[in-house]
Amino acid sequence: MAKAPADLNQLHGQFGPHLNYTPPGGWQAESHREDEKLIKTHCCFCGQQCGIQLKVRDNRVTGFEPWEDFPFNRGMLCPKGVKRYLQGSHPDRLLAPLMRSDTGFRPATWDEALDFTARRLRELQEKYGPDSVAVYGGASLTTEKAYLVGKFARVALRTRHIDYNGRLCMVSAGTAYKGALGVDRAPNPWSDIPKAEVVMVIGANIGECAPITTDYIWRARDNGAKLIVADPRFTPIARNADLYLPVRPGTDLALLMGMLHVIIRDGLTDREFIDANTTGFEKTEESVAPWTPGRAAEVSGVAPEAIEKVAHLVGESRRAMFLHARGLEHHSKGVENCEAVVAIALATGNIGREGAGPVMVTGQGNGQGGREHGQKCDQLPGQRSLTDPAARAHVAGVWGISPDELPQPGYTAVEIMNAIHAGEIKGLLSICFNPLVSLPEAAFTREALEKLEFFGVIDFFLSETAAHADVVLAGSLQEEEEGVTASLEARVIHIQKAVDPPGDARRDSEIICDLARRLGRGEFFPFQEPREIFEELRLASRGGLADYYGITYEKIDAQKGVFWPCPTLEHPGTPRLFEGGRFFHPDGKARFMSLTWRESGDPVDADFPIYLTTGRVVSQYLSGTQTRRIGALVDQYPEPKLELHPRLAAQYGIATGDWVRITSRRSEMTLQAMVVRTIRPDTVFIPYHWPDRRSANRLTHRTLDPRSKIPEYKVSACRIEKSAASAGDF
Amino acid sequence: MFGMEFYVDPSRCIGCQSCLKACEECDTHRGVSMINFDFVDREETIATAAYVCWHCDNPTCAQVCPADAIKKYEDGIVGSSLKPRCIACSNCVLACPFGIPKLVQQSEQMMKCDMCYDRTSVGKRPMCATVCPSQALAYVTPETIAANRREKPVNTFWFGNQKITTKVYMMAPADVTEVAIDVADYVWEGDHELVPQAF
């Protein structure tokens, strides 16, 4: 039974989160010592994967030094990057495997923990069938680890059910780009942004969630570009927007269809490009015909004049770029939202050229690389489809198994949790995923976890989810194992190993290979070093969309990153896709789609009249497993607050600092108010990085986009009322 | 670092506070941040501003120091107080027109931005300007700023008839040459210098 130990205070006392403020040895010791190593590597956090140099002494990361020669960030770092080095020597770090005991967790030997894990997985599969166990992976893993997790699920465990936390991040854009353009990747390198004449940012809080990208946007403005920001909140980059569009949560599609309507009505389309390089324009044309600026304005809350203006700014430019992120994707029509952005780019011919194109701002550290090589429920390495017989044959050949042995696609991340809740899936092995904080409707997730007959976790800290585990295998931080990641530009970069895992903790890949051996499949997992995994991955991806065959660790170091596809060792890589209007579908053409308006899955009504949207703050990362343990980052924004407009606050008699109970159709929570003029008056905002009583995902709903299966985090319905006091931590 | 100057542009600031976090990693004052950071008025606006010491040509902090503890070096950098001399009286904290110096309780002395003396003196850029994701804090050549920015650098400030010139530049709209926000700087009383905008 995967219930968390009863005494959470004891658990928190033992495993944190505690706050670490100081480097190993304290602030003073470090500054006077010489002979340290500087390791050129990358930040472990967001999809920008900034270059950074880690200071290392005595097998401990003691600090950082900016890496000014790395071209993406040229030394720049956000506060998370500056303080990321405080994790390795953190007092909460798991130093040995843990087994559940009567009162909590006890340290175990690796043999005991691994034998137990393999035995329980095998027992469940024998009793309930191979698909009764599932694997969760994560997009903060290196590409080697992500590849290994996918292969482990399909070859060692032989289950259909493998998916990852990128399901909560990028998949709407991925589905839209794959369908419209034939490949799931941002088409332009970030160096194109300063060359654009028009930059439209929609559903992307760049300043807080992709801080370094701010510099690219400011440079575009320095060069005279117009900046358009569409968001329910006046985000930090909106301070310099030429046009700010206060779109109502869940209505981006109306705004985008209104723009397309004007672009077509006023003859701002690039007919020559459409005729030569695309198909299906009439489908989009028909979809947007009823979406006059007046109708789009009524739905989206953006003025008709502003819709006309933005359509003309974009339509009259030959160098327009579109940056979009979770604000567009986290919707039950997330794929349509992204398809609409792509359609605007295609209709105006703004794609496949310098300074012109739509780009998704991938969120997670290896959000790009982690979704390319077999961790997604329906994909094989190289961004190949698991249902394509040729792809199955190729990958099975590399792996030395019969294509018939490869399972068919299984459930997506939220569907796996649903199947656990329904009793269909009995066992779960999870790495790099904290679903108790990150999945919608946290109470449902907790109920599901408690139903598991076996729950194994590989992690370096005891996350809120890991507290439910039967066994926790002490794994490695990013800087403790070599590998590659692909940044949001699809630039494949080299993660250097800076230190060994501390204590008895082990490298993640070593743990996975060891488990595979104990499941009797060791012959398919002979890897001693990540480099050997990468060599196999090169072959497995060869000829696929995300072709890594021409990439080596040495080439990455020499070129400071290689953009995939890179099909041969002589190939320099591909920073910009679709040049000359050549798209990745077999006919070489891009596809316009039918766009259909739908209401959100949790509509506002008389009982729940306020829109709730959730997101991030600059000082925290995802579910906070890592960043809620770093003192300087916690101090910057210690607790989630409820952002609301003075007009809404006045209606309920709420002032900044007052406690407010927020109730949705799922649950309620109580937070302190932060009254700000920088949010729509009909909307409230809560950042989501915290667990338990402070978890925004208590309130969110489990409606999924029917194609991408992403949850609708960005719009729920709620009501608010002033409350006497906090309701406590748990 | 030869040929580089420091430029502050609050209009680029996104409030991420990377500068604050990075400053305390600097070797001369580890664990203590010397950045001055403000939310201008969070209820009304998203606007934030991060500042370093302006390193005045004729530093008010040094003028008012009764212990002669604040030194300006040959390269124009005004240092933190000298520990053996500083009497922690806070004269400088009160007198600085920019509000920069801080009395650090744990060491009982005034500390402030020394432009990462340990870094700039060996050819590195200051920590804050190196990491700043929006380049609201920038340490580059005057040529780079002139070629790339819409705003123009200004280093003359007025504070109620006190004219101050600084080593660090503020980025201002192209038609502004000196920054004055006090009406006194525009009022003619016959005997003192006025900001050029007053004419």
What does this structure look like?
The complex is a heterodimer of chains A (730) and B (199). Chain A has 4 domains: 8-87, Phosphorylase Kinase, domain 1 (2-Layer Sandwich), CATH 3.30.200.210; 98-167 and 366-574, Rossmann fold; 171-360, Dimethylsulfoxide Reductase, domain 2 (3-Layer(aba) Sandwich); 610-723, Barwin-like endoglucanases, CATH 2.40.40. Chain A is globular and about 70 Å long. The model of chain A has no long low-confidence stretch (mean pLDDT 96). Chain A is built from 24 helices and 28 strands. In chain A, helix 4 (110-128) crosses helix 20, helix 5 packs across helix 21 and helix 9 (252-265) packs antiparallel against helix 12. Chain A starts with 7 loop residues before the first helix and ends in a 7-residue tail after the last strand. Helices cover 30% and strands 17% of the residues of chain A. In chain A, the strands form 7 sheets. In chain A, strands 5-4-18-17-16-6-7 form a 7-stranded mixed β-sheet, with helices on both faces. Chain A has a 6-stranded mixed β-sheet with strand order 24-26-25-28-23-27. Chain A is of the alpha/beta class and 730 residues long. Chain B is an alpha/beta fold and 199 residues long. Chain B has a domain at 53-112: Alpha-Beta Plaits (2-Layer Sandwich), CATH 3.30.70. Chain B has helices spanning 18-23, 60-63, 91-95, 117-120, 127-131, 142-148, and strands spanning 5-8, 36-39, 48-51, 102-104, 109-111, 137-140, 152-159, 162-172, 179-180. Chain B has a 5-stranded mixed β-sheet. In chain B, strands 2-3 form a two-stranded antiparallel sheet. In chain B, a hairpin with a 2-residue loop joins strand 7 and strand 8 (162-172). The A-B interface holds A 21-22, 27-28, 30-31, 63-64, 66, 68, 75-79, 81-83, 207-208, 211-212, 214-215, 218-219, 221-222, 234-240, 618-619, 632-633, 636, 646, 656, 674-678 and B 11-12, 14-18, 20-22, 24-25, 27, 30-31, 42-48, 125, 127, 130-135, 148-150.
